[in-house]
Every structure is written in C-alpha cells, then in structure tokens.
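Final report, Chapter 2: Outcomes

The project's central promise was a pipeline that accepts a single protein chain and returns its three-dimensional structure in a standardized token representation, suitable for archiving and comparison. That pipeline is now operational. To close this chapter, we reproduce one record exactly as it appears in the project archive, with the input sequence first and the structure output second.
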Amino acid sequence: MENKNNLTKNDFENIICGRNPVIEALKSDANLDTIYMNGDGGSLNLIRRLAKEKGIPVKAAQDIKLSKMSGGASHQGVVAVGACGEYVDVEDILAISAEKGTKPFIIICDEIEDPHNLGAIIRTAETSGADGVIIPKRRSAGLNATVFKTSAGAASYVPVARVSNLASAIDKLKDNGVWIYGTDASGSDYTQTDFTGSCAIVIGSEGFGISHLIQKKCDFMIKLPMMGKINSLNASVAGGIFMYEVLRQRNSMSG
C-alpha cells in the first residue's frame, strides 16, 4: 500500500481539510506539522505563502492521497496535518541544562525523515537524560502521531526544537560552549571520545548520513566499530549507542 508521506491512520485523526479552514489555521498560528497540496493558483498560492512565512513544510500529494486523508470530505486540493506536540526554541533546551546545573547534552537529527526512527531517537534521548532534540523544518519527520506512538510517550517529555536553519542552530550552540560531535565512518572511535563536557551529537539521515554542510560545522567526528559485513546501522540504533556512551561517561564522573 502506498505510503510515500510516512502517514498512518493515526495522523488522519489530526487533520484540517479545505482551503479556507487551512488558511484560518495558518492565520491563527495553529500548531501545524505539514501541509499536503495538489495544484496551484488562487488561494492555494496564499496557503503556500503563509506556510513559507511560518516555516511549515508543504508537500505535493496526489488527489487520491488527499481524499484518503480527508476521509472523503471535500479537501479542495489541500490537507494540513496538525502537530501532536508543541515545539520549543533552542534557547529553551539550553535553559534546561542550566536549570539542572549540568553540561548540555543535546541530540541533533539531520534530515531524519522516517517518523519511526525519529520516535525511537526521542525515546532513547529521554531515557539517556538528553536535554532535548533539534530537528530541521525541511526534509525531516515532525511531531506527528507516528512519532509520538513510536516514542512510547517520550515525545511528551523531551523538548524538540524545529529550526529553519540547522547550521545556524549549531552556531548558536557553539556560542553557548557546546561541542558538536558528528557521526560518520570517517571519525574516531566513540569509546575514545570525551563526552563529559557540553556536547551535541548529530545523527545523520537514514540514507545519506550527515550532510556536507553540517559535517563542516562539527568539531569532532565519531564512529562505531563495524566488525561484520554490514557497514552501517539504523539511525536510531546508532544514535542510541552514542547517547548511552554519553550517559555512561557522565555517570562514571558523578560516581
């Protein structure tokens, strides 16, 4: 069954369909995750403009997909999927560690498009004590129903910042004394890396890893040893290993 947009039936329970309802939702600053659209001109162009101003992704979708999402209701070529949680700012995540009196520990997801992977990463971020997760607005899963379900509720507790420019967000972290650790096969053994200071770990996309621009922003590159014939791990599995190494090292210091 076609599911190019990574949506499940749970997501369809949180939708707005029709041109005027979507326009009003945008004008009222409703917490929208993604807008799916078929066609252009007139009010659809207005929706695109408003969505761009608010940093909400717009994705092309065939009419049959929109009809399925709207449950047969009149969609007029547009369906908006509401976010299941509120996003925060990068400053909010930094404030969490300041309030706890600990060094920042942040997860950055560079174009993780599979909502199951993002949900699993958020779940591990919560259990490993990370202060928050940063995702880009473009080419990334958002806080939809699938992410919440996969996170086993962790998405309700882990702050997620959704930023329009990931490179700028990284610069902001650096300005606050956070070291950026990229994950790539070209890096150093993660067990030989000191994570006891302020750190943010970048987890790359499922198919392409960390983008070239974000790699250049990283202070260090780290890798997992690969002993078998398969040379890569699922993004959420690899991220979990790195997160728990950070926790292990910090527990060793406090112990």
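Archive annotation: The longest helix spans residues 235-254.
This record, like all others produced under the grant, will remain available to the consortium after the project formally closes.
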